[in-house]
Write a structure and sequence with these properties.
The protein is α/β, with parallel strands linked by helices and about 625 residues long. Helices cover about 50% and strands about 10% of the residues.
Length: about 625
């Protein structure tokens, strides 16, 4: 107790939780270690103490006169986490600036430290020693049995698989199914809910119901990874994988709850649970992007989950109520056999998924930023065949394969699009482009022009050069700057762009730092007096033009929204917002006649580095 209180006191010296400017990244290196270092240096010690207080407090309660049903406190803590998770994006983030949030959180943390210190003082005066272990072989929940190595491994494995499937399913539905903002909330909420139910009492988890349903869903989810009618159909995939995650985690966490020990071993139980969760997260978030070329961790996780069931469903002793390993019953052997067949089927579907990717994809690459795939799409008329680049479910561009059509602008960048009109309305001698994609905009380059691309993902640059010829065949001089565009622009001297295209907002993970008041100031520093900033705001789920318009209004800039719905081959409907210092620039022919008024969003404030509200611009 004294050590915990001392650590709490030391953690107060780190408040408020605000990152120092020296943590700003260089922009070119893999940000994984930088992010981990930032978290450790800022929120690390307070988070460590918050996460360890729950098990420690339960241990204190178990040693006191009020020590009954201590595992319900774990259920309660997860319920609080679930409520906080749901509250933040809807109640806190839309109404409080980041600095305000940091100071408010720090103040609440001080109250937590004081409350924890008071609790420690109370329990120090009201604790007693727990009885020694009986070394009983019964694994009944909260009975005083002595954990063996296989029990530690089972605690570890069940926890790890829950974390693994949470992250893998989140990756799948947000990257491969639909780039919907806030969709990540759904799987995380279901994951926390299963902890709430399984540790509240034993009435919620029933093997006879949850195991068969989970097995069926496991098979369907594995099948969906190689069947696009199931796995990437938004109306089928999101409900399937969300319900699947709920049942998978109910089984995994339900089995964990069945194996909970008496309070004497409580801290060891929670240590394995926390370590398992960390290992599952590390496997998916850190290892998978470096060793797997595509999103195969979900298929692997489904196979491992089925194999883990074989271990969980080891033969049981009649009447024991949990696994003991002493007697072999026909029911237990059949269950393990069924789990083995399930694992084999999941492995087959994973094999088909990988094979299909290798056969149907020209190039596939993966890193911290996600998975990229280049594919050839063949159409009825061979002259319409195209090569496409995908980042998950988001298309980043395409190019005609016919030699005489290779230099035609496609997708979001046609002559009647906002960016096409902006280049035509200026000299277009120097163009900056934030977001490379396939490099389509390079086709507008003329001899003597300079087109400078800013791209954060080195694999996008590699594929754009290797799989597409827009950049190599451009008549302009092509320059590239690898790294976060805003950081690169901050470090460069004024570029004097005629047009600066900001093309990074088509997915669900909107890089907010590229569409704030401070970012606009930076863009203006690099723009000629009569230049145009073009924001590509095409998005299925977010209505972003009012955000740019409000920033421009505050700064006294002129705007024009170009909503283009072309009929040309391989061109897409687009929303581009053009911004200029001089209103006359946007009055030129081609822009004025194509512009559309923007309906403002009531109550929308200009976004800054300290404040934004994605929820307010949901369509």
């Amino acid at each position: 107790m004294q050590v915990h209180v001392l650590l709490l006191a030391l953690s107060l010296t780190l408040l408020p939780i605000l990152a120092s400017p020296h943590w700003k990244p260089t922009g070119e290196a893999d940000p994984t270690l930088w992010i981990l270092g930032l978290l450790v240096a800022t929120i690390g010690p307070p988070y460590f103490l918050l996460s360890t207080t729950g098990p420690l407090l339960q241990s204190w309660i178990a040693r006191s006169q009020i020590g009954t049903h201590v595992y319900r406190y774990f259920s309660l803590s997860n319920l609080a986490s679930l409520l906080a998770l749901m509250s933040y994006p809807f109640l806190i983030e839309p109404h409080a600036r980041l600095a305000t949030q940091a100071y408010a959180w720090s103040g609440v943390y001080v109250l937590f430290a004081l409350s924890c210190t008071g609790s420690a003082w109370y329990f120090l005066r009201h604790t007693h020693s727990l009885p020694p272990a009986t070394h009983a072989h019964s694994h009944a929940p909260e009975s005083d049995w002595d954990p063996r190595p296989r029990d530690y491994l089972l605690w570890l494995g069940l926890s790890a698989m829950g974390s693994w499937l949470l992250l893998a399913i989140t990756n799948h539905i947000t990257q491969n199914v639909a780039a919907i903002p806030f969709l990540w909330l759904l799987p995380l909420s279901l994951y926390l809910l299963t902890f709430v139910l399984c540790f509240e009492s034993d009435r919620w988890y029933r093997r006879a119901f949850f195991l068969p349903v989970a097995a069926l869903l496991l098979l369907l989810c594995a099948d969906g990874l190689q069947d696009s009618a199931i796995g990437v159909n938004i109306k089928v995939a999101i409900p399937l994988y969300a319900i699947g995650l709920f049942f998978f985690c109910m089984v995994l966490h339900g089995e964990l709850a069945r194996l909970r020990t008496a309070p004497r071993s409580l801290t060891r139980f929670y240590l394995m649970l926390a370590l398992g969760g960390a290992l599952g997260g590390i496997a998916v978030a850190l290892i998978a992007p470096r060793v797997l070329p595509g999103y195969y961790e979900l298929g692997i996780g489904l196979v491992l989950a089925a194999l883990l069931l074989m271990f969980v469903l080891r033969p049981t002793q009649a009447g024991d109520g949990a696994a003991t390993g002493k007697a072999r019953t026909p029911t237990g052997l059949m269950a393990r056999g069924a789990a083995g067949v399930l694992a084999a089927l999941c492995g087959y579907f994973l094999y088909v998924q990988v094979t299909d990717d290798l056969v149907g994809t020209r190039r596939i690459a993966r890193n911290f930023y996600g998975t990229l795939q280049s594919v050839d799409a063949h159409r009825q008329d061979p002259r319409d065949d195209v090569r496409q680049l995908y980042h998950g479910s988001i298309k980043h561009g395409e190019q005609f394969l016919a030699p005489d059509r290779r230099r035609l602008p496609t997708t979001y960048y046609g002559p009647t699009s906002g960016i096409g009109r902006a280049i035509a309305a200026t000299s277009g001698a120097k163009v900056g482009l934030i977001g490379l994609g396939t490099g389509t905009l390079a086709v507008y380059g003329r001899p003597g022009d300079v087109y400078r691309f800013y791209e954060i993902n080195p694999q996008v640059l590699e594929l754009a050069r290797a799989e597409f010829s827009f950049m190599d065949e451009s008549q302009a001089r092509i320059e590239t700057a690898l790294g976060d565009a805003r950081l690169s622009l901050e470090q460069e001297s004024p570029q004097g762009f005629d047009v600066l295209a900001v093309d990074a907002f088509s997915g669900d993970s909107v890089p907010v730092h590229l569409i704030t008041s401070e970012a606009m100031d930076l863009y203006l520093r690099h723009l000629k007096a009569d230049g145009i900033i073009a924001f590509h705001l095409t998005n299925r789920f977010l209505w972003m033009p009012p955000v740019v318009q409000e920033i421009a209004r505050v700064k006294g800039l002129a705007t024009a929204l170009i909503r283009d719905d072309p009929n040309g081959p391989s061109q897409r409907r687009t929303d581009w917002m053009l911004v200029a210092r001089d209103p006359g620039v946007l009055d030129r022919a081609g822009i004025l006649q194509a512009s559309t008024p923007v309906t403002p969003i009531p109550g929308l404030n200009a976004w800054t580095d300290d404040f934004n509200n994605l929820f307010q611009i949901l369509k």
